[in-house]
TrEMBL record, chains A, B:
Cofactor list: FAD
Annotated GO MF terms: FAD binding; oxidoreductase activity
A Pfam family of this chain: FAD_binding_4
Database matches in PANTHER family: D-2-HYDROXYGLUTARATE DEHYDROGENASE, MITOCHONDRIAL
InterPro entries the record matches: FAD-bd_oxidored_4_C, FAD-bd_PCMH, FAD-bd_PCMH-like_sf, FAD-bd_PCMH_sub1, FAD-bd_PCMH_sub2, FAD-linked_Oxase-like_C, FAD-oxidored/transferase_4, Oxid_FAD_bind_N
UniProt keyword terms in alphabetical order: FAD, Flavoprotein, Oxidoreductase
Biological process terms in GO annotation: respiratory electron transport chain
Coiled-coil residue spans: none
Domain FAD-binding PCMH-type span(s) in chain numbering: 35-214
Family in the record: Belongs to the FAD-binding oxidoreductase/transferase type 4 family.
Superkingdom of origin: Bacteria
Record's protein name: Oxidoreductase
Length: 454, 454
């Protein structure tokens, strides 16, 4: 123990090995306060070489390591179970100049999404991923968890932005693939293997990301529909008629009411409707006319309000983006993040209330999500004592529909018990074999992704 | 041996186990006639269950397997070294109806790209990948080799089209992920791991692919420029001004002359120019005006000819697409397929002639490629006896520029000796560990991707 602390202090400097409980505390609990665990210490390396030195020291001591970025995860993947060395990558903040010809940039794992966005926009480009935690979420964590967000319908998840990575294996070996080649068929795509591996294979220290055109014109419509089937009609119309489609978000009546009450937002329409779609189109030129035309041609639209100026766009987005905050203000929810093939979405939404009520009669269900990917964020309030039963009920509905028990949040520590619902035994066994091949001692994020074997 | 043949015959029916040398022959040599090897037998399963039975039989006998799709590869990856069971997937031709709502389709490994394209277009959609070998190349092989082609600048390589896969491990275990979920963060992306793994991890039996909008309007310009730097200026102008950019292909003066002579094509311009770019824009509405506008605003353009009708488009594409055929007619070339960061492209093109001349003084160099990815197809004719020296010289130039020694063709058997130029020892070691974890006996495509250890 002392020997390990000494080696860690030698690797990163004594000021960056935190053992005092008060100093450790901010790292030991996630922001939703649902996950907490004591770290042996918190180590804050400044660069890749220091990360490698930290991992060599931990490997020599057989000390397990929990890897943490901006600590904005939702499944406890960046919080210790108890006793791990917590490796915080927040100081890896190097940000290279934008490569305009390649439309790419290289960023340290600790760079926040918001800083990366500002950096890209200053060069006339943009980041293909955007999400509400942008001010704290770091690119290393975004890649390690393959974050999604509100632009997936246009640009894909974090994985699709990734053209290269630098990472350190648990034995301190550095892997570096940062040339950002658009095509490179020389064997297994280790870059993509690390995306979404939740820190169980290697510690990501730098990433090379593609950037997308900065689109100055943006029009948003909030569309009222009769239900999820109608929402899918709006999606289909938007997909075929809006080349600039950049978001298609689903909200339901209950969620919108909660958001309105919490944020004191005005009613968007004269009457309430069962469901709403927020449709955004972004381009180089004004998108209002094409958006109006698509809505006019879609029989599922019951009512709609459109905005194209910055204030109006922000006002409409607030109905969607305030959901998480409004739910948190109402209590500590069971948070599930699932996806099904798009055609199965209406059936899933219909099946949720009775299933949740059976598991937790007093529970309150708030559902919203990313329509284009069949991705629902299922939040269950007032499910005290029945969290596992609710989780189990919802995730089984999803599995019955060939869906994913974690669409964008990852498995972390929270969902390991349900991994088998999305991945059959053959796949889990294969993943474990790959894990053992890459991190034979199992030191990186033990207990994340897979249940620990007894 | 007899026991294995008996089990294979039981698995697929005796008519589909070919042992007669005449029947085996078409499978034992690649179409360029550069790679050949005798198979123990050729086995032609009809479905996934039969593939699994074949692999179980081979595993029980310790028999190595070579996996073959349409046999259109360029690096010998689908041809036996000698003595393998050749597993041909040409009978896995099941093609499911297009899922219009998800814009996806599931296809058997043996479906040709051309058939898939026809199928998608009949549903008002299209395949994001296109390449000259479309009539014979099969989707299983395209995924296993992560094929590229002429649409990568818009839609990415085969990997980017892939939303799910069904594959069989060397022990006969079937992995199935065909729901086509746009987002699924439940552990390692096994689908992406198989893409580009060249049959060394599993045998792909079915794939789930995203489809792209069918774009009826297409305009093509053949643009003359002073050199590769000018070509990159055209690329940059096209990237920023043409939202519909769907191809950006580079040709050089020598190649165009060879193509013209071979195909008896007219001179595109009154005078010859050092380099040419074929730029295509595709959209829902006519692309001619926007294409002309972009070219008019680009000072690097020396001359240009534009076509928007089908005949004219085909005429201009012929200059590019006839390259491979014209080169083959001129001899058996050393074929290299490399990429570098786009900014390094002019330097690489300038460095090639002296490097090739030093390795093979009588050689003739023909270079063309996919500009958007910094991808050059380097063909060297009349390099008899100096193939390895030429290969070595060119690939070292590429490695010096942080490039890939195989941009889209893969490593196969042809490039294993040079893998270390693109992948350092740590990466090769990690890939070997993953290979050993997934196929412990090393029965799938031995000698492909990695040099066999002594």
């Amino acid at each position: 123990m002392t020997d390990l602390l000494g080696r860690l202090a030698a690797a990163v400097g004594p000021a960056h090995v935190l053992v005092d409980p008060d100093l450790r505390a901010p790292y030991e609990t996630d922001w939703t306060r649902r996950f907490t665990g004591a770290a042996r210490c918190v180590v804050r390396p400044a660069d890749t070489a220091q990360v490698a030195a930290v991992l060599r020291a931990c490997a020599a001591a057989g000390a397990p390591v929990t890897v943490q970025g901006g600590n904005t995860g939702l499944v406890g993947g960046g919080v210790p179970a108890g006793g791990e060395v917590l490796l915080s990558l927040g100081r890896l903040t190097e940000l290279e100049p934008v490569d305009r010809l390649a439309a790419q940039v290289t960023a340290g794992a600790g760079v926040t999404l918001e800083r990366l966005q500002r950096h890209a926009r200053a060069a006339g480009l943009d980041v293909g991923v955007d999400l509400a935690a942008r001010s704290a979420a770091t690119v290393g964590g975004l890649v390690a968890t393959n974050a999604g967000g509100v632009r997936v319908v246009r640009y894909g998840s974090m994985r699709e932005q990734l053209t290269g990575v630098e990472a350190v294996l648990s034995d301190g070996t550095v892997l570096r693939r940062l040339a950002g080649l658009a095509k490179d068929n020389t064997g297994y795509d280790l870059t993509q293997l690390l995306a979404g591996s939740e820190g169980t294979l290697a510690v990501i220290t730098r990433v090379r990301l593609r950037l997308v055109p900065l689109l100055p014109a943006r029009a948003v419509a909030l569309v009222a529909v009769d239900g999820v089937a109608g929402a899918l009609d709006v999606l289909a119309a938007a997909r075929s008629g809006l080349p600039g489609l950049s978001a298609a978000e689903l909200m339901l009546a209950d969620g919108l009411e909660l958001v309105r009450a919490h944020g004191r937002l005005p009613a968007p329409f004269g009457a309430a409707h069962p469901a709403y779609v927020l449709v955004e189109s972004a381009g180089r030129t004004d998108q209002t006319d094409v958006l109006l035309e698509v809505l006019a041609g879609c029989p599922a639209v019951r009512d709609a309000t459109v905005a194209a100026d910055a204030t109006g766009v922000a006002r409409l987005w607030a109905y969607r983006e305030t959901h998480t905050e409004a739910i948190s203000a109402a209590g500590v929810p069971v948070k599930l993040d699932v996806s099904v093939p798009v055609r199965a979405l209406p059936g899933l939404v219909a099946a949720l209330p009775p299933a949740v009520a059976a598991a937790a009669p007093a529970a309150r269900l708030v559902v919203f999500g990313h329509l284009g990917e069949g991705n629902l964020h299922v939040n269950v309030l007032d499910a005290r004592g029945a969290a596992d039963a609710v989780t189990d009920a919802v995730l089984r509905l999803v599995a019955d529909r060939d869906g994913s028990i974690s669409s964008e949040h990852g498995v972390g520590r929270a969902k390991t018990a349900w991994l088998g619902l999305s991945r059959d035994a053959a796949q889990v066994a294969l993943m474990r074999r790959i894990r053992a091949a890459v991190d034979p001692a199992g030191l990186l994020n033990p207990g994340v992704l897979f249940e620990e074997k007894d």
